[in-house]
Amino acid sequence: MKHGVAFRKFSRTSSHRNLMLRNLVTSLFEHEQIRTTLAKAKDTARLAEKIITLGKKNNETSYRQAQAFILKPPVLPKLFTTFAERYANRPGGYTRIHRLDNRFGDNAPVALLELVDNPRDFKLEMTARAVGRELLNEKLRWDSPRGVVNSGVQHAETAVAKELNLSGFDSSELRPTTRRNLQKVMKYRGREALTEIGAKASAYIETVLAKPVAEAKMQLRADSKEKEKARKRGNPNFVGSFPVLPARAGVASPGETRPAMRLVQGALGRPARWRGRRALA
What we know:
Layout: H1 14-31, E1 33-37, H2 38-57, H3 60-69, H4 76-86, E2 95-102, E3 109-115, H5 122-142, H6 145-151, H7 156-163, H8 176-186, H9 191-232, H10 260-265
Antiparallel strand pairs: 1-3, 2-3
Helix pairs in contact: 1-2, 2-3, 2-4, 5-8, 5-9, 7-9
């Protein structure tokens, strides 16, 4: 019977397992984002929450307990100053886990473990891009793509501020899921975060609007190279087929709808691999 068997063993002895988790928690506090397997991320998040609670208590006993757990002494001041001030009003939930992909080799699920409200907040970036995408889609409902490219989407920060006061059933420019994510991200942040997410949304809108123009220029450059090759071959009036340049993963043209996770992946998105066996010679 499975009585009294708690948590994961990771095929390690207790001393090795505890040292591994202490190392992961220390790395999380040092970098505020780490990438590891999903099982390790869950156990690391559980311990990191307890250590941050010690930092919020900020007394001699909690300092000694945190000092005995964290492997790098330079991380201790960050725990009792930066993290304690950042999470002073937050009752819990200091970590967040994002499922990314599977590791090449053993196919283990990989996750991104981060501290919430950190300077490189993955969820903030993901939400800002989703907000920018949906504001652009709303503008395209009433204007042509060329008109949107010329005029752009103005006042993203004002639209974000208006969304924060709406409930889940109110109609607006954003989908209910995006509005709920926006309200979660902004719940314990100040006015500076409103300006930041508005700027990120505007920057992403400008990037998406500039992409078709850049792709058209790249395609014209590729076509001119093909024409030059045909001219050198002695038949300047004939080109068999122009090459079609591939689009980057996670990027869509204006008006196209994609999930927010795909929008933010970018470099995290990997091309599909052929997993079949090689044919024997």
